[in-house]
Write a structure and sequence with these properties.
Elements lengths: L4 E3 L4 H8 L8 E4 L4 E8 L2 E9 L12 E3 L10 H6 L1 E6 L1 E8 L2 E9 L5 E8 L5 E7 L12 E2 L7 H6 L17 E5 L2
């Protein structure tokens, strides 16, 4: 789920205004794991941008971990501390999924129904180089036709709650957004 996403520089002014900070991002229509992602964090100064490499590789893992399941993130030892204290949002234009149709892989782009930025929920791991893991959940009805998971999307009106509520209190935000929030189209 969500191993590629799309971010375009044109969202920067929208994100900057929403979070009252100077957000910058370079266009990357095929953002992939291990690349440096632009994220939003909340700290004592308010909302800030923090860049992080997408993915972690714990000693016990043979591969890069880019996603954590929302249903278990609060309890898994690998993610628990970051989920409690280092939540972030990843502004983007959408994400991609592939589906086999007539024996061929077909790429689909999932975007906001009104072409606004989407805010994927994430957690940060603060090391020499900050790392990022995005959160996934069971898909809504529309997205379930393409994949068994989808990103946890935090709506703009829930941003403050995402950053400030306890891990128990934010469980309602960890579910799929309504079908009408997401538009799906074939991609090149």
């Amino acid at each position: 789920m969500c191993g590629r996403y799309n971010v375009q520089g044109r969202i920067a002014p929208i994100v900057s205004k929403l979070f009252d900070t100077q957000f910058t991002v370079e266009t990357n229509t095929n953002f992939s794991p291990s690349q440096l992602a632009s994220t939003i964090i909340a700290d004592e100064r308010g909302y800030q941008q923090m860049n992080a490499n997408w993915g972690i590789k714990p000693n016990w893992s043979k591969k890069l971990i880019i996603n954590a399941q929302s249903e278990t993130v609060a309890n898994k030892p690998t993610f628990r501390q970051a989920f409690q204290h280092q939540r972030c949002l990843v502004p983007c234009n959408g994400w991609y999924e592939w589906r086999t149709e007539d024996g061929k892989k077909v790429k689909y782009h999932f975007e906001h129904g009104d072409k606004l930025p989407l805010y994927m929920a994430g957690i940060l791991f603060l090391h020499e180089m900050t790392e990022l893991v995005t959160l996934t959940t069971q898909p809504n009805g529309k997205c379930s036709q393409y994949h068994k998971r989808m990103p946890v999307i935090i709506l703009p009106e829930d941003n403050d709650y995402w950053f400030n509520a306890s891990t128990e209190q934010i469980s309602p935000l960890m579910n799929a957004v309504n079908d009408d929030v997401i538009n799906i189209k074939k991609s090149d």
